Amino acid sequence: MKPVEQRFCFDNQASRIERVRAPPEPAQPHDHVQKKVVIQQATRRDALRRRPSAAKTWLQAIALTARLEAQPHRLFADIVEDWAQRQPGRPALLSDGQSFTYGELAARINRYARWARDVGLQAGRTVCVLMPNRPDYLACWLGISSVGGTVALINTRLVGQSLAHCIDVAHADHLILAADCVDAFESSRPHLHREPQCWSLGTGDPSGDLDAALAAFEPRPLSSAERGDVTIDERALLIYTSGTTGLPKAANVSHRRILAWGGWFSGLTDASIEDRLYDCLPLYHSVGGVAAPCSMLCAGGSVAIAEKFSAGSFWDDIERFDCTVFQYIGELCRYLLKAPASEQEARHRLRLAVGNGLRGDIWETFANRFAIPQILEFYAATEGNFSLFNVDGKPGAIGRVPPVLAHRFPASIVKIDADSGSPVRSAAGLCIACAPGEIGEAVGRIGGGDRDGRPFEGYTDPEETKKKVLHDVFAVGDAWFRTGDLMLRDAQGYLHFIDRVGDTFRWKGENVATSEVNDAIRDCPGVLDASTYGVAVSGADGRAGMAALVVDRDFDLEIFNEHLSHRLPPYAVPAFVRLCPALETTDTFKQQKQRLIREGFDPSLVDDPLFLRDPATGGYRSIDRAVYARVVEGEIRL
After folding, report:
1. Which CATH number, 3.40.50.12780, 3.40.50.1970, 1.10.287.80, 3.30.1330.30, labels domain 4-379?
2. Which of 223, 306, 417, 445 has a CA 20 to 30 Å removed from the CA of 72?
3. Is residue 68 pLDDT above 70, yes or no?
């Protein structure tokens, strides 16, 4: 007999199907285009009329994630296997180059699991995966993790020392390398402390040919003895995130969290077997690679995977794959708004957009132009122990915690010192909670269950884990997770994201650690000193990287640009450069950045030479008032 939680998941699908199925087509349309537009308009009206209440979506999410510990050996691969038994021919993962039905996906997962057992990838051993977006990405980590192996999801945009660092901190025995990523891996090899055994996909290299190895294994499900004693509390993934300082950190992600993310988002999005989600976010990130696809797979729906986001092909993909949901980040929405209007943007069957970073200034414009019936904005962090959801659709808010769920998501906002970034303490030595309207750092209580807070699984580096834990917050001996994010709570209880604390800024959907950029810059010939920071750019989400440099006569901007291109991922290379005679420091030799941040790249405020990394040529060019105006007005888009 199936467990109660799984029966809820399956038995409620039938009641959800009708909510997203397109209505019958009009009998006599004038032409094909008009016919489709009429259908889409009717579908959107139907989606709005049948949109579930906020209370119902919360209840669905709770039901799908309740009592996971009752089945400690049931992993997410088992959910896929169950759907494969029920609907083997239904599409699970779609893309232009590769697609899997549920039966094919389950078979591919099983082949990866058997291969992992054969090479000893179980009981906590680790494999790094360097592979672009494709359906096989999910089959890979679902299969390997199902027999106890840990899969490190590596950013495919990294090169050189940054890539080597991510491989090294995973302590990986094996690395799965797609043909598209061979050059990036070769750039990292000289910097590796220990080189893992490489397995190639699609490279044609007979040594370590993973395609051939997988084909040799049977696709049938593994027995419980073959699976081993793998429980939901064991580590399944390493997902990398940049904190306030340093190189990327590898965050531990357990099977329990994968199940929770998948079930929670499935419930809140009201997902059904009729849904198709468009996912153009990186699969090496927690949202694009775990929360988004697992929400649909949990409900028996489909996921259309794009290799990367493209404003030019976005709406064509939405129509071609017949998607009902898409996953966004705020910058993606801004790119779509800036793109020329097209017929495709009106010809879709979307009922929901779900994501994070959609700011209030474009929320309603975005929803109205593209006729999105519902937007579900949320806040979460890969390593975080709480999340927020704007189920009510209030523009600009990242969510709120309903009183009935306050025990499940114990979060607060505490006052911090603007200069040091440290919490402000009372006379009793405890933190001070912010009143409504006050800006502070969001924190989440660390505990072992629903009543005393959620666990914080930390990183592979224990010292980095300690840095994220705040003690004696509201009671002596308590512990809270530091998000590093500034927020405020409004009078209605909704939370709003303000900015990052400290020296990390977000650009192109990625966190950029200034210390990593500084280290790369200081290794460049002619650079004597450097200070990296983020500056606001009109019309863009996040902050663009800017570097203030002190240089000598040997400094050359072309060499500087080439040097950073080999050391840093594209999003971390500074968009702006300022050449200064000296950099200001405090009495303890900490860099003073506030004046630099305030002045930004405005030549009317800055007497020093300023340069822009031209997005058209990739080289640096001088900034005068005319160039500055073109950036501010959006004619030059970074």
Report:
1. 3.40.50.12780
2. 445
3. yes
